[in-house]
Amino acid sequence: MLLMSTLSALWLATFAWCVKGEEENVKSIGLRTHSLAQPYLDSDMQSRWYDFGGDTIIRTDQYIRLTSDRPSQMGWLFSRVPLTATNWEIEVEFKIHGKNTLYGDGLAMWLTKERGKLGPVFGSADRFEGLGIFIDTYKNNRPGVVFPYVMAMVGDGKTSYDKDTDGKNVEFAGCSARGLRGATIPTKLRLTYFQDKYLKLELQYKSVGEWTLCFETNQPPAIPQVAYLGFSAETGELSDNHDIISIEARNLYTAQPTSRPTPGSGRGKKATKEGSSWGWFFTKIMIFFLVIGGIYVGFTAWRASNRRSHRF
């Protein structure tokens, strides 16, 4: 048992180390098709890359307001074209605020197969297929959980979101974010996705430039190949302003390590680069197995010593 737990911890540490090494080489290219900033609208009072509907209103010098601080409102904002990048990062500045001491319901971010449909899940359709990130500001029934609560749900197109339990039964990952609503600094979320490698959600609401990790997983869900980026919000008897300030979308890729050119043909340069990459890979593998071997030997010696002590 001790050996298994130690190996599990070692594996997680090795994964984190590898991811960190990859992150250092990650480069980005802005995705204009999925980014949005003031004044939001073109000269014909339309957005080239986004559609909006429901109770959404746009003030070109300040915000896209998905719901105003009034009861029974729903609004949405969805990209016109799907997000086709394999690896991406989306950073959103938003603001949830209002004049009431009791407020609700919350704001959602979507990467889903369908787009622009009003519904009961934070203003968008239920039984969705894809990924939903919910910033839930009103607590229905989650004992022991501090609200606002931020959670991810992976929809299969069949499973329904249960409002009565605040989605507890369908939660993929989540975190409490006390102070996010009505924060005095710009509030942001940053969602980073590498296909088959990891999914990470970070929040900024405590101080400018301080990113708080909400969740991170090395077993990310499968995002539909055709997925639209969207946002929605909803109010019920209680209400709030739910604003989108800006959206920055980036395509991520891993930069190949470069090496100094050596005299000779380009073929030699390519071989050097490939050799360096494979050499680094095998170095990681060797270190990993050496550490496992050391733990095993140490554990075996400890167990033998423990048995000898029991004889006496």
From TrEMBL:
Give the UniProt record's GO annotations in the biological process aspect: endoplasmic reticulum to Golgi vesicle-mediated transport
- Compartments it resides in: Membrane
L-type lectin-like domain spans which residues?
Answer: 28-252
Q: Note the Pfam families from the entry.
A: Lectin_leg-like
Q: Which Gene3D superfamilies match?
A: 2.60.120.200
Recorded GO CC terms: COPII-coated ER to Golgi transport vesicle; endoplasmic reticulum membrane; endoplasmic reticulum-Golgi intermediate compartment; Golgi membrane
Q: Which PROSITE patterns match?
A: L_LECTIN_LIKE
| Transmembrane helix among keywords | yes
- Could you tell me one molecular function GO term of this UniProt entry? D-mannose binding
Give the signal peptide, or none: 1-21
Domain of life from the UniProt record: Eukaryota
Instruction: Write down the membrane topology.
Output: Single-pass type I membrane protein
Keywords for the protein's UniProt record, in alphabetical order:
Membrane, Signal, Transmembrane, Transmembrane helix
Specify where it is mainly localized.
membrane
The record lists the membrane-crossing segments as: 278-302
The protein's name is L-type lectin-like domain-containing protein
Species this chain originates from: Chaetomium thermophilum (strain DSM 1495 / CBS 144.50 / IMI 039719) (Thermochaetoides thermophila)
- Organism phylogeny: Eukaryota, Fungi, Dikarya, Ascomycota, Pezizomycotina
